[in-house]
């Protein structure tokens, strides 16, 4: 019998019986468990896998906890044409940190000629290291770095504040230590198609993988965890729907072997559908890539992100990216809109009995605030509904 999670947000009721298939998986009796250990570990050098139990040791039970990676301050803002004041970005990050979100993608050490909006990522990292950002949970801040220049720019700031942050290495060395210091991690970003790689990184996939190998190696020497994106895995704006899942698996394997700790599968264009999400994940499983090394990064351009999330959950994936207010888009993916909204993800996941640890009310307020600051519509249907329901209750109280 499934154990029901404590639903953390007051708006949510008990799961609908039709969700029991997902709940069974959420509580460790589904596909995800048997398959997470079934294949050889593709990764040779990553810090994290070296610390994990061997194939013969019992694996930790898969529970109903889902990790949401908030990408709003990076993916959500990078496409904005008007430069957003640093104070607004910092306010956004600090507010998100108070909601229970444990990982926030805060900036990007890329060429300012390519993505001017991310130019003040140095100041953001500096602020994070100088200030003790309040949070109910230990925080990880992630920054993109496509090459050694980007990593060196990030490192220059880290070196100025050597005692202000944790790394994956320090956390693993002392897992029980309670530290209020944030962990810093790095993200590289490959593409599944040559055309997107050229548009986004001005080089072919092979060259980009060479850069990422250098970045991963240098980041590991510093003890930093590395997330490795693969963009356009379910559709490319230049090459169309039929992105080869085997190519995605090859690139993922290569980056895991370089030492990446996580593969973030980017549906950059939102062209992904449920059957193709399933096909992709099955292909990665056949290639020996474990569910716990995969996260899903769905943009919601065609409104399929939650359906695809359900497919990935059924498959056993437990890490998902989202962006408050549904902000976002990639400057090199014409027409692609925002990431799936964090508010929608929290509501959806918790309605299935999953536990995100995120305060839905608080994140809905942030979505309303930041979209207003940017002069954009709030793209989170759940965020608008939460605020609407609350204002009706307030009117009732006054009446
Ligand atoms: P390039 O023009 O071929 O590079 O760009 P270059 O080596 O000729 O350098 C050009 C200039 O940039 C030089 O400066 C370099 O020093 C400088 P100059 O001599 O002209 O003054 N430069 C840098 N400056 C700061 N930081 C750096 C850096 N590297 C070089 N790291 C490059 C190649 C990779 C730099 C460029 O193409 C680039 O920055 N691309 C990034 C594009 C980007 O950020 N895209 C959005 C993120 S990916 C995304 O959103 C997808 C994702 O969300 C997942 C999904 O949805 O699928 C992650
Ligand atoms: Mg993206």
Give short descriptive properties of this protein:
alpha/beta, eight-stranded parallel β-sheet, 16 helices, globular, binds 3-hydroxy-3-methylglutaryl-coenzyme A, binds magnesium ion
Q: How would you describe this protein?
A:
InterPro entries: Aldolase_TIM, HMGL, PYR_CT. It comes from Cercophora scortea. Residues 66-364 form the Pyruvate carboxyltransferase domain. Residues 46-65 are annotated as: Disordered. Belongs to the HMG-CoA lyase family. With 399 residues, the protein is α/β, with parallel strands linked by helices. The chain has 16 helices and eight strands. An eight-stranded parallel beta sheet has the order 7-6-5-4-3-2-1-8. Helix 11 (245-258) links the parallel strand 5 (225-231) and strand 6 (262-267). Helix 10 (205-221) runs parallel beside helix 11 and helix 11 (245-258) crosses helix 12 (274-286). Residues 1-61 have low confidence and may be disordered. It binds 3-hydroxy-3-methylglutaryl-coenzyme A (HMG) and magnesium ion. 3-hydroxy-3-methylglutaryl-coenzyme A is lined by residues 75, 78, 108-111, 113-115, 146-147, 149-150, 153, 189, 200-202, 229, 231, 266, 268, 297, 299, 330-332.
Q: Please report the distance between the alpha carbons of the first and last residues.
A: 45 Å
Give the low-pLDDT segments: 1-61
Report the order of strands and helices: HHHEHHEHEHHEHHEHEHEHEHHH
List the ligand species. Answer: 3-hydroxy-3-methylglutaryl-coenzyme A, magnesium ion
Q: Quick gist of this model?
A:
GO terms for molecular function: hydroxymethylglutaryl-CoA lyase activity; metal ion binding. Pathway: Metabolic intermediate metabolism; (S)-3-hydroxy-3-methylglutaryl-CoA degradation; acetoacetate from (S)-3-hydroxy-3-methylglutaryl-CoA: step 1/1. With 399 residues, this protein is of the alpha/beta class.
């Amino acid at each position: 019998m499934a154990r029901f999670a404590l639903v953390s947000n007051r708006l949510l009721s008990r799961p609908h019986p039709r969700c029991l298939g997902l709940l069974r998986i959420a509580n460790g009796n589904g596909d995800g468990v048997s398959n997470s250990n079934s294949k050889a570990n593709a990764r040779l050098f990553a810090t994290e896998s070296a610390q994990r139990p061997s194939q013969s040791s019992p694996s930790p039970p898969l529970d109903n906890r889902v990790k949401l990676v908030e990408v709003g301050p990076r993916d959500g803002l990078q496409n904005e044409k008007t430069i957003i004041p640093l104070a607004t970005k910092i306010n956004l990050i600090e507010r998100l940190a108070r909601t229970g979100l444990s990982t926030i993608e805060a900036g990007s050490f890329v060429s300012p000629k390519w993505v001017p909006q991310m130019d003040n990522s140095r100041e953001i990292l500096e602020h994070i290291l100088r200030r003790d950002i309040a949070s109910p949970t230990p925080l990880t801040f992630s920054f993109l770095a496509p090459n050694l220049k980007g990593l060196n720019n990030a490192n220059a700031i880290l070196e100025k504040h050597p005692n202000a942050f944790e790394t994956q290495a320090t956390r693993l060395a002392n897992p029980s230590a309670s530290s209020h210091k944030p962990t810093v991690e790095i993200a590289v970003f490959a593409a599944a198609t040559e055309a997107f790689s050229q548009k986004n990184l001005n080089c072919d996939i092979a060259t980009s993988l060479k850069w990422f190998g250098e970045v991963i190696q240098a980041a590991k020497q510093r003890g930093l965890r590395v997330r490795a994106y693969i963009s356009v895995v379910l559709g490319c704006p230049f090459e169309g729907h039929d992105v080869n899942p085997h190519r995605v698996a090859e690139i993922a394997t290569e980056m895991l072997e370089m030492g990446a700790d996580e593969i973030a599968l980017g549906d950059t264009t939102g062209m992904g559908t449920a059957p193709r999400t399933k096909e992709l994940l099955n292909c990665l499983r056949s290639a020996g890539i474990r569910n716990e090394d995969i996260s899903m990064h769905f943009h919601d351009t065609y409104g399929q992100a939650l359906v695809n999330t359900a497919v990935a959950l059924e498959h056993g994936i437990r890490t998902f990216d989202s962006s408050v207010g549904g902000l976002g888009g990639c400057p090199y993916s014409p027409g692609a809109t925002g990431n799936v909204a964090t508010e929608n993800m929290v509501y959806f996941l918790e309605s299935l009995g999953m536990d995100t640890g995120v305060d839905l009310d608080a994140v809905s307020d942030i979505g309303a605030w930041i979209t207003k600051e940017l002069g954009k519509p709030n793209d989170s249907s759940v965020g608008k509904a939460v605020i609407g329901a609350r204002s009706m209750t307030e009117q009732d109280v006054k009446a």
